[in-house]
Amino acid sequence: MSSHLVFNVTAIRQDSPNLKTYVFEHNLRAKSGQFVMVWMPGVDEVPMSIGWQTDTEFHIGIANAGDCTNAISEQIKVGDRLGIRGPFGTSFDYADYDHIIGVGGGYGTPPMLNLAQRATELGKEVTMIQGARSKDYLLYEDLFAKLGVEIKLATDDGSEGHKGYCTDILAEELKNLDKSKKTCIYTCGPEGMMVKVAQMAEEAGIDCQVSLERYMKCGFGICGQCCMDDTGIRICKDGPVITGKYALEHTEFGKYSRGQSGIVVK
Amino acid sequence: MNLSVNFCGINFPNPTVVASGYLGVTGASLANCIKHGSGGVTGKTLFMDERPGHPNPTILTFPGGIINAVGLSGEGIKNAKHEFDKYRELAPENPVIGSVAGKNIDELVEVARIMEEYPVDMLELNFSCPNVDDEMGRPIACDPQMTANATRAVRKVVKKPISVKVSPNVPNIGLIAQQAEAEGADAITAVNTMGPGMLIDIKMRRPTLSNKVGGVSGQALKPIAIRCVYDIYKAVKIPIIATGGIINGRDAIEMLMAGGSLLGIGSAIVAHDLKCFDMITDKIREFMQEEGFSDISELVGLAHKS
């Protein structure tokens, strides 16, 4: 359950100015939306979602967001080793839907890529909406293209795609939905965005699944570090994927989380 | 058939209590354990100040057990009242034990004094975590005199029941428990983790825990924990919260027979997730039925009678 698999990094892609994707040759067999704990020895171990995944390799997209991710970015080169624990947690439920709409903001994009892979394999209609601050921060256009997935882009500065938020694009999508198809909206990214997406789905009466992130220690549901108010569910075990409807029942969703000590951070 | 336990005057609807350090960061998380069948809960140990704890990896399993060096992370007692309030709101019927520690006895007393004002039923004094050292670097619980001094100091300011959590890493655990009892402890929580232990990642060629060493629990600890509870039961009259490697109902019954009145549950969550509470109480009920017992108290210390 929790000893590390240690892999040599076989390739590194610089996918945006602050995000590198690390490629490992291993059949991880993760379900779409699950995460792994990535161990940078001597520094820390952090939860990361799984991006592109085939029978022979998997990708982890790591944005510079703190001491551990910065250390990985600065120190890990091709051939160096990282430890992986997992995969852990719940996964996206997509089998029963005809139309998959993904809304990925920033580094919430890797699990959307993974979902797009699995959904296209099953021949489902896939619409991916991706938002970023500018053109340079948009992720995995080549890989989405490889899947033949329709991708709609939004940037804050309008340097590519729609100038504005990905929720603006989602609003348009929802207006033009084919009601005969069973549709689900999936989202991963900044929590404020996910709140908006979950609310829009609720209002439109469409199913929604969100992938959440909290500070984690054990990764398998015993330490209590990643629990959400008021249900007390564990994001590492009962999440990271929960329905948008259930997420909205949580008083802390979009409002606060807890840090390494357990103290509330708003 | 009665599975409820009156422990130091507090009613636990069943003998399972979430052990300190498990799912105890937030009040809502502890209340979620109640929803899944736990009789009571213990919060994560709090010091006066916020503590980040060690970097990850902090908690790992291995075949036969768990090793952890979380490093007593916590919000700090002054920041944590809202968690107990939330627990009370969500689980008004089930007891909660507040676990406290300090960098020294003065801090411990101050933290205990604040905890007593919070909506907790009982206090647990964590003397046995390796981070709660005397000047020699040993946990308080490894020294009978230190245990006596610390218990006495807390007893002076705390009216609610107190349980002293002891370490298995001592030559005579009964003596430590006697010291706590003599200074006014109402109960003993036995035991904390053993060790410290270490795991090495052979491909990284280094210890896996960031802290290198950590406390060992789970099945590896169970026979030692049972012996400790057995020894303490012989040594003192105050009741015991027995904890250490219980993963199923059978282990739980062993612990009751060794002398535990309540069962601190942690390893079972690793093994069976939150359904473990119901699994354990169901198994105890089934055993009592089969063996002709009507009250769970009949099982407590039964192994001493033969």
Order of helices and strands of chain B: EEEHEEEHEHEHEHEEEEEHEHEHH
Strand content of chain B: 15-25%
CATH-defined fold name of chain B? TIM Barrel
- How many discrete domains of chain A? 2
Q: Gap between N and C termini of chain B, in Å?
A: 24 Å
Mean pLDDT of chain B: 95
Largest sheet of chain B: 8 strands, parallel, barrel
**Could you give a short account of the major beta sheet of chain A?**
7 strands, mixed
By DSSP, the count of extended strands of chain A is 16
Order of helices and strands of chain A: EEEEEEHEEHEHEEHEHEEHEE
Unreliably modeled segments of chain A:
none
Instruction: Name the CATH homologous superfamily of chain B.
Output: Aldolase class I
Secondary-structure-derived class of chain A = alpha/beta
Rg estimate of chain A, integer Å: 17 Å
Q: Into which percentage range does the β-strand content of chain A fall?
A: 25-35%
In short:
In chain A, 22% of the residues lie in helices and 31% in strands.
Could you explain the architecture of this structure?
The complex is a heterodimer of chains A (266) and B (306). With 266 residues, chain A is α/β, with parallel strands linked by helices. Chain A folds into 2 domains: 5-88, Beta Barrel (Elongation Factor Tu (Ef-tu), domain 3), CATH 2.40.30.10; 99-265, Nucleotide-binding domain of ferredoxin-NADP reductase (FNR) module (Rossmann fold, 3-Layer(aba) Sandwich), CATH 3.40.50.80. Helix content of chain A is 22%, strand content 31%. In chain A, helix 4 packs parallel to helix 5 (191-204). The mean pLDDT of chain A is 96. Chain B has one domain: Alpha-Beta Barrel (TIM Barrel), CATH 3.20.20. Chain B has helices at residues 27-35, 81-90, 105-117, 144-157, 173-182, 222-235, 249-258, 267-272, 276-291; strands at residues 5-7, 10-12, 16-18, 40-42, 59-62, 65-68, 96-100, 122-126, 162-166, 187-190, 194-198, 200-201, 206-207, 213-217, 240-243, 262-265. In chain B, the strands form 4 sheets. In chain B, strands 3-4-7-8-9-10-15-16 form an 8-stranded parallel β-barrel, surrounded by 6 helices. In chain B, a hairpin with a 2-residue loop joins strand 5 (59-62) and strand 6 (65-68). In chain B, helix 1 runs parallel beside helix 2, helix 3 (105-117) runs parallel beside helix 4 (144-157) and helix 6 packs parallel to helix 7 (249-258). The longest helix of chain B has 16 residues, at 276-291. The A-B interface holds A 1-4, 6, 37, 39, 41-46, 68, 81, 83, 85, 216-218, 220-225, 227-234, 237, 258-264 and B 21-33, 35, 44, 50-53, 55-62, 70, 73-76, 79, 82, 86, 90, 199, 201, 203-204, 206, 208, 210, 266, 269-270, 273.
